[in-house]
Structure prediction request, 128 residues.
Amino acid sequence: QVQLVESGGGLVQAGDSLRLSCAASVRTFSRHAMGWFRQADGKEREFVSAISLTGNTYYADSVKDRFPISRDNAKNTVYLQMNSLKPEDTAVYYCAADRESAYSTGYYPRSIDEYEFWGQGTQVTVSS
Prediction:
């Protein structure tokens, strides 16, 4: 079982930055593709970004060039650097991991049903 714990959320003003962290309690972290999703109040959960086993990345158009994703396999942690935050970025952000070795090393899952493990989420609120 993979346990994921997000942290780093908070209340910020538009234009500010936050870095979200997701710590995984699994030794095989490097064999999981990782992703970030978000869910705004009253909205469906949506894809934000993903990173493959080899570090290939993919981003939703809404956050491209603003929210780089990275991973540190030595620390079993994936990060989401959130820059130039906008009020519309306000949401609960969730970290997710796919099944171990489920996909090719360069693949980045970007659909909810491609991930098996989820964290509890961390709230990000951006004021105008």
Notes: The chain has a mean pLDDT of 95. The longest strand covers residues 18-24.
